[in-house]
Amino acid sequence: MSETTPEAPEAYRYTPALAARIESEWQDRWERERVFDAPNPVGALADGSEVAGRPHAFIMDMFPYPSGAGLHVGHPLGFIATDVYARFMRMTGHNVLHTMGFDAFGLPAEQYAVQTGTHPRVSTEANITRYREQLRSLGLGHDSRRSIATIDPSYYKWTQWIFLQIFNSWYDPEAGQARPITELVARFERGEQATPDGRTWAELSDVERGEVLSDYRLAYIKLAPVNWCPGLGTVLANEEVTADGRSERGNFPVFKANLRQWMMRITAYGDRLIDDLDLLDWPDAIKLQQRNWIGRSEGARVAFEVTGVEGASITVFTTRPDTLFGATYMVLAPEHELVDAIVPAVWPSADLPAEWTGGQATPVEAVAAYRKQAAGKSEVERQTEGKSKTGVFTGAYATNPVSGEQVPVFIADYVLMGYGTGAIMAVPAHDHRDFEFARAFNLPMRCVVQPSDGRGTDPAGWDDAFVSYDAAIVNSANDEVSLDGLGVVDAKKTITDWLTARGIGEGTVNFKLRDWLFSRQRYWGEPFPIVYDEDGVAHPLPESMLPVELPEIDDYSPRTFDPNDADTSPETPLSRREDWVTVELDLGLGEGVRKYRRETNTMPNWAGSCWYELRYVDPDNDAQIVDPTNERYWMGPDADKPAGGVDLYVGGAEHAVLHLLYSRFWHKVLFDLGHVSSKEPFHKLFNQGMIQGQVYRDERGFPVPAAEVEERDGAWFYQGEQVSREIGKIGKSLKNVVAPEEVTEEYSVDTLRLYEMAMGPLDVSRPWDTRAVVGSFRFLQRLWRTIVDEETGAVVVTDEEPDEATLRALNKAIDGIRRDLTGLRFNTAVAKATELNNYLVKRGSTPRVVAEQAVLLVAPLAPHIAEELWAKLGHTTSLVHQPLPEADPAYLVDDTVTCVVQVKGKVKARLEVPPSIGDAELETLALAAPNVVAAISGAEVRKVIVRAPKLVNIVTG
Fold first, then answer.
1. pTM for the full model?
2. What is the pLDDT of residues 748-769, one digit of tens each?
3. DSSP secondary structure, 205-254, as one string
4. What domains, with CATH codes, occur in the chain?
């Protein structure tokens, strides 16, 4: 860099002021020279260089939501880590794609708009501008040409396009992949696929065809029980509801309600989402979370016909079809769609127990009252073990298909629509929850699994259910099939085959995973590229009409209501813009211009983050979502990543079953349809830990400003009053925010980078300690003095050849730092760089060749000071693409190692010996050492334990 003439020698010292000047100038130069730009093989970002033969690395952060609060020191941890790694990879010859975008749709900006009247785009774009300035100030080496924001119409055009690919697809179980819906239509037209009622495709109306296809489409509309959050005015996915039944955003109560919603058939991919985890380099804990969330289990589906209701049958999924003879009643979730159809007008008997009827005069009233009660409970409350079981008889009976018995049908809140079919066959003798319910409602029990604990086979005397997976089956036979005496495995197969042969059941795999609720009743989200004709049939817009842009509106609020009232219903802001909702379009269907109504829900905030890695690859492509050549270059499969994907993806573990699962689903659909070569979006996943802060609380337990707390004699005081201290998240609510600027202004950007990387292993949470930051600053000062005279500014390195000891120290540092950076062990890389610099300081003078390599080793971690020192050493180009030093193996093997000699457990000597020394020779040397001879002092040597080459332990009598 060019230097200004200093007015005083102080200008040559590495001070915060000098660091700030250096950092600003180098950030400007990096931007001016575009040193972080990564060329594509083809298209707008191709620069004419040959990239096909170069190793490449696609490195990504989970991109941030640009909140108005900006960054605190906890946010950049992962961003700095990926920047260090990206810089390291560039210096090892890789073409590195590393950029940063913004996940900018969502509730926070909309809530702010409701409160202030500020358009969400205005506040969001201002926040993005601030974030970009903060990220740039940290010296992050992003290819800014590739940066995206999910709110840009040029971006969400392709989000809408992907939605249409999913809408226009169905999952072919025979092929095991998604295929165009047009292929399914052709099968219906040819009669190869039967319609539900047996009519030909030509006999169906447009409405009926739409309904049939909706049962196959990967994106479909359904009246479904959903998580309705009146406080936010929208529905939420299961993953957005906390364990205590409140909204993750805003902490509002969440209720169950039946609403017409867009859904995505992610369940069709359940097997592949589980199986392909084996192809990924992900933390085992994240894989386990996904497997548990998907929840694959094998069993059977069984149909129970409802007595007296024509065409009505209740389908259950059970993992224990072998216990079917023990089913004595059934339970539906209160939200089950069959409930209304099977409830009679009057009770079937006048002498039903009061607990069966809930004290109501009719089944309709009983069911309505119980449903309202259940809607106010969270799923956790409904599933809590040991709670008193509640429910109500529907007034209907169903037929047990193996015994022919009439069994009563109840609704109860311990059965959820979120698992299986939302209905269970209750086998109270062998299920703990069913046992409790049966006792509460005086229902019969039948033992069908032989108890092995001596309790006998009459459940009337049992204290709890008998549950076993290896006991013999009993009391389970009819005129056609017998399970008696069989083990569980054989009994399952026998009964499943019997059910299948009679068309009343079949073996199947079930998933705990539910289809993805994809509608939001808010304004600030991607509009759906769907319109409805006068018959209510949904039509996809042609690609030429994308993007469907959000219109301007005057009122961003959803319908205002009591957040505690489950009986409210949504009213979307877009529905009030009638001139946008009602349109006249020619959809190219041969029908000319027709009147349509737009979809007034918007997509969830997860939509834009499901595919942003693909847009990073080809951000300026207006013709396709991504050029196949570019996608294959950056993300295609190879021997090291068999499913393809991003080479390194860094972010928080909290996204294990939200963003990561959704992204994998979208990517697999695009793979099935031939749009990408990679089966998975992210090959290697790394979860960084959290930087935590000190939280101080007054006697009421309220947080007080951490910056105003004083420490005296081991205690902490705020405004003269003693407060308690604990470790917690950094955030405004806990009044412990430390902005990056506070650190960079007092020390330097490189200090912040070094400190965050040195705090501990990247995947471990650690507390922030402002007082400890100075240690990283002092290291940079010592590094500066190793090369620069602080009095004159002159370079003080020598032209001498380094001695052997220096070469050993240097090459060990090179080898260790390269290994650490490869393994994302940034804290130990900092430690090795510090150790090398301390060696050079003690040496007194530094050969130029050593100084240059030391600077290159530090460059990924502290790039600004490294660039400046590189320039002072006489180089005119940036070191961003300079080769990282490689270790000479000859200097990695020590000529000698230190052997510790102990006598009776106490160290008496240290010997420098060859690494290859044998036990016998080492024992002789140890016994001859003067200090050892003195320690033994003529005593009998009883035993000598030798661990060549590092330890000799002598035991005397």
1. 0.85
2. 999 999 999 999 999 999 888 8
3. -HHHHHHHHHTTBSEEEEEEEEEEETTTTEEE-GGGB-TTSBBTTT--B-
4. 12-33+767-885 (1.10.730.10), 34-151+610-687 (3.40.50.620), 161-292+516-606 (no CATH), 296-511 (3.90.740.10), 694-728 (no CATH), 897-956 (3.10.20.590)
